[in-house]
Specification:
293 residues; 3 domains; three-stranded antiparallel beta sheet; Alpha/beta knot; alpha/beta
Length: 293
């Protein structure tokens, strides 16, 4: 028999569940409050027991983790989630410099973009692409959802199937129809593709793109460093979205709750908290942030 005790802000009210059957014991003059409490108790019990064994629901994981994180940290995480979006994603195609890749992730985190896709050859992945450099990413990588790919075609087909408009960052394409970034249509979900430092995006990426865009330049040089280009385009995107929609963040409640739990895990510094997670068969070292991207 498993019992859960949950206290609500109603005087002398205790909610108890034995074998998933909620019982409400209340000493309160207002009968309506008792029935309201009963409904809340039933919902609580269903949420707690939604998984079998000791596995916890997102609702329960949040409450297990929250006591181990300061209120200031929790408030900051909630503010970050309010300003996050996955409707604009970044694709990095065969970047050679680890520093450039991490700098892009740092800009993404700072400007509120949650999802990235990194296309790397097998040997590049084996060379240590999964690790971050604190000098360039400032710890940003752990707060993002990053999925690895081995081919450009697979990555872009996946994003197209999810409804993203593919925008390759290229000064010139075959029909010279590349647009200044400020002329891009921001009404749709967007995936910006940034190419390698020397050669830029591949011919395949340009061919599969719905449109190409570039950053207008007025100097002798005709290109930016890839991490600088990404920062400029993402900043322009953020400001355009704020002007159009009133805000950049647009995560659903379900997405926020899922990321909240993942952010709590990443914010943990207490070994005791990690032992609590392990007790409930939740591995704090294993990320599930890429499951749905």
């Amino acid at each position: 028999m498993t019992s859960y005790v949950v206290s609500f802000p109603i005087r002398d009210t205790v909610v108890r569940s034995d074998n998933n059957i909620p019982w409400v014991l209340a000493m309160h003059s207002n009968v309506v409050s008792i029935f309201s409490c009963f409904r809340r108790a039933a919902a609580t019990c269903r949420s707690i027991s939604c998984n079998t064994g000791n596995d916890l629901s997102l609702w329960a994981k949040e409450r297990v983790l929250a006591p181990y994180i300061s209120s200031e940290r929790r408030n900051r995480i909630e503010r970050v989630l309010e300003n996050r979006t996955r409707n604009v994603v970044v694709v990095l195609e065969h970047l050679h410099s680890k520093g450039n890749e991490n700098a892009v992730y740092r800009s993404m985190d700072a400007l509120g973009f949650q999802e990235a896709h990194s296309i790397t050859a097998d040997e590049e992945s084996e060379a240590g692409q999964a690790s971050g450099d604190p000098r360039t990413d400032a710890g940003a990588r752990k707060w993002l959802q990053i999925r690895k790919w081995h081919t450009t075609r697979d990555c872009l087909l996946h994003l197209k199937s999810r409804g993203y408009q593919i925008i390759a960052t290229a000064m010139n394409n075959r029909d010279n129809s590349s647009l200044p970034v400020q002329d891009v249509d921001f009404d749709n979900k967007i995936a910006f593709v940034f190419g390698a430092e020397k050669d830029g995006v591949s011919d395949l990426a340009v061919e599969m793109a719905d449109v190409c865009c570039f950053i207008p330049m007025i100097g002798f040089t005709q290109s930016f460093n890839v991490s600088v280009a990404a920062a400029l385009i993402l900043y322009e995107t953020r400001m355009r979205r704020i002007r159009m929609f009133g805000r950049n963040g647009d995560l659903t409640d379900e997405e926020k709750r899922s990321l909240l739990v993942e952010f709590y895990v990443r914010a943990l510094t207490s070994s005791k908290a990690r032992r609590v997670l392990q007790k409930y068969k939740y591995d704090a070292t294993d990320s599930s942030m890429t499951e749905n991207i």
